[in-house]
Amino acid sequence: MWNELWERYRASTIGIGAGFLLGVIYLFFGFWNMLVFAFIVYAGYYIGSKVDRREPVFPPINGLYQRFLDLAERWRMFR
Question: Membrane-crossing residues (predicted)?
Answer without folding.
Answer: 20-45
